[in-house]
Amino acid sequence: MTASTGVSTSRNNSDGRSNDDALLLVDNLSVGFPTEDGVVHAVRGVSYTLRPREVLGIVGESGSGKSVTSMAVMGLLPKSAQVSGSVRFRNDELLGLSESALAKFRGEHLAMIFQDPMSSLNPVYTVGWQIAEALRAHHDMSKDAAMTRAVELLTTVGIPRAKERANNYPHEFSGGMRQRAVIAIAMANDPDVIIADEPTTALDVTVQAQVLDTLTTARHETGAAMVLITHDLGVVAGQADRVLVMYAGKPVEIGSVDDIFYTPRMPYTLGLLGSLPRLDAGDAERLTPIVGSPPSLINLPPGCPFAPRCPIRQPICDVEEPELRPTTSATHVAACHFSEQLEGKSPADLFQTSVADDVLPEDAGESEQQDRVVRGEETAEQVPGGGQS
Amino acid sequence: MLAYAIRRLLISIPIIIISTFIVFLLVTYSGDPLANLRVKQPIPPPQVFAKYRHQFRLDQPVLERYWHWITGVVHGDFGPSVEGGGTLNIGHELGHRLIVSARLVVAAMVIAAILAVVVGVVSAMKQYSIPDYAFTFTGFLFLSMPLFWFAVLLKEGAIWLNRNAGTSLATIGDSSPTVGAGTWAHFTDAVNHLVLPTIALAMTSYAAWSRFNRASMLEVLSSDYIRLARAKGLSRRRVLVRHALRTALIPFVTVTALDMAAILGATIITERVFQWRGMGTFLLDGITNLDVYVVLAWLLVAALVVIIFNLIADLLYGVLDPRIRYE
Predict the structure, then answer these.
(1) B225 shares a domain with B187
(2) Which residue of A has its CA nearest to B225?
(3) What are the structural domains, with CATH classification, of chain A?
(4) Residue B53 is part of which domain span?
(5) B247 with A76: Cβ contact below 8 A
């Protein structure tokens, strides 16, 4: 079903922006996986536009369809996946292209960085060889020239002694270095779009910031636009221009970083913000968890998929699934029947600070003590060995 | 790498010595070499027993007998045989039969390995397609057919064909006693005799190996680095051969090496069915005649072959997989 390919270029996409200068145009993309229990509707109509040099952050919890969306864009889903909708790169429709036709776009125009750097590189070839291979796939260049360029790329992504390191095998690299090597592969052919699928999730916290810096370098060097998939709102805040929040396979809110962080118009977004630890907040503020878990994507009941976990749920929420509608501006859209009710609300106004699942009631006293330690109410003398730190 | 190879080779020596000792003890205590003599009517005089006891070194203690045997082997003397009244040179016979059997084993292994790789790749690429189901069916068919039965089936089928279709497939022996002069005539005769036993022996290994390669290939095809290789924009062929097959074949090396022992066992049955005068028949005749030193010679060769193949597999691993280092 690629009927929607007829979108005239002047029509507005569902994120409220015109498509005139779109680099990547995803329209009503849906993905289903047939299983024995029925079709899992992992992605249920995602639309977004990506303009040159723009960074779009896609956030959402595990299973919300973030990764599947980008795999569908790259055409990397297994054959059993049922994909419909439209994915346009400039003026070319990518959905339904053969593997060999897609290969011309992959690497050259659309590059991808995956979540787990430990397994992303082939263990039996050297890192330099694998970068050179990416170059030679799209450019007619000698092996030596490709290798020289590979060393340059490794230097760019911050690998020390790149010339020697290029001859190392992936297992001789640390996790952070491997992810840099994968970024170097993504940069190799100066792509127009880089899709980074949770590029820092599998890494040590201390390495995450360095890899994010490398990603920024890659973006500046290649001039590429980026789709940054993550469940870390902190990463999005630092990197993205626009944010798309996904829940149960659908975008529930799209807007600029400021829209999303300062005037969220979907209770789920608000809940995500409330569960984000903030160093700048006062010590009296507690985190507000979103109770419950996302729905199964097989036989999704009618109504808003977030309704069972939503603090402002009304009867209509169980009947009608809300569409994305403009809120504070035409380019800030949210899928909630009651988005105007969120005006001026903080997460604590809507969500409870206690865990309503009734887990760990007997630990309550202990956790309160830990809270005091975290908030610095206990003096350093009371902590064994304290005072030195 | 070279240092590792040498070290690995040196480690093989004690393994060989220990295995020969175990083999010797097992054969020594598994029966009475003179049992055939005892049931003879009329019972031979005690001098005959004494003569045989001395000839087969039964009058020596076990450890001395072992030493006598193993030092003999090092000098090319594999010990006395009952065959031909004790005149048969086991070493000489062994050399001849080894060549005959090696022909069969090598041909069968090469064919089985090539078939298994091709079928494994096709099955994995087109999982749950008609070719995949067809290969899966034949794979399990050959897996469940006992070799002795399949070999007899082949033989009878060939005899029927020879009779009714006018073909001249060789069904008995490793070569014809009457064959024209010239190397070419000898070569075609040998190939003709190889056809049926090779099919029988190859198919049993092929069945297991193709299933193994299919699984190994499927696992690699769903790995992250294959996804990255595709995301790089490589051609389908390059992803398949340079990235998937190259890595999927590493564990196959172990399987082939470990299967060597099983193939030696299967060779005995195949040779029996097709009446080859190879290693297999040598062992069976040795067991029937209670020919201790013949059985020992066979077991020694089998142990050596298994040890050598494991050594080759270990060394190949270092070449194929850079993660394995031998420092």
Answers:
(1) yes
(2) A120
(3) 24-247 (3.40.50.300), 263-293+308-374 (no CATH)
(4) 2-69
(5) no
Give me the pLDDT at residue A261, please.
92
Identity of the residue in B223, B230, B236 whose CB atom sits nearest the CB atom of A119: B223
Q: Which residues 221-260 on chain B approach chain A with CB closer than 8 angstroms?
A: 223-225, 227-236, 238, 243, 246-247, 250
* Across A18-32, A46-60, A308-322, A350-364, least confident range: A350-364
Of A99, A107, A171, the CB nearest to B232: A107
* Whether A79 contacts chain B with CB within 8 A: no
CA separation for the pair A252, A265 (Å, rounded): 9
Q: What is the DSSP secondary-structure string of A8-69? A: -TTSBPTTS-B-TT-SEEEEEEEEEEEETTEEEEEEEEEEEEE-TT-EEEEE--TTSSHHHH
Query: Does position A344 have pLDDT exceeding 90, yes or no?
Result: no
Mutation target vs B (from A77, A119, A124; most B CBs, 10 A cutoff): A124
Cα A300 to the center of its chain, rounded Å: 23
Confidence (pLDDT) at B257: 87
Nearest CA in chain B to A108: B233
Whether B203 is covered by a domain: the verdict is: yes
C-alpha to C-alpha distance for A231 and A19, rounded to whole angstroms: 27
What is the number of CB-based contacts under 8 A between chain A and chain B? 76
What's this model's pTM, rounded to 2 decimal places? 0.81
Measured in Å, how far apart are chain B's first and last C-alpha atoms? 8
Residues B136, B22, single domain; the answer is: no
What distances in angstroms separate CA B290 from CA B34, B248, B294, one per listed residue? 8, 46, 9
Encoding tokens for residue B244? 């998937």
Interface pTM, i.e. ipTM: 0.82
For residue A188, what pLDDT is reported? 93
Tell me the angle at which helices B183-221 and B90-125 cross, rounded to the nearest 10 degrees: 40
Q: Does B124 share its domain with B238?
A: yes
Do the Cβ atoms of B231 and A116 come within 8 Å? no
Q: Do B103 and B47 share a structural domain?
A: no
Name the token pair of A243. Answer: 């944010």
* Mean pLDDT to the nearest integer, A248-252: 93
Q: Residue B227: its chain A contacts at CB < 8 A?
A: 76, 114, 120
Partners of B229 on chain A (C-beta within 8 Å) are: 122
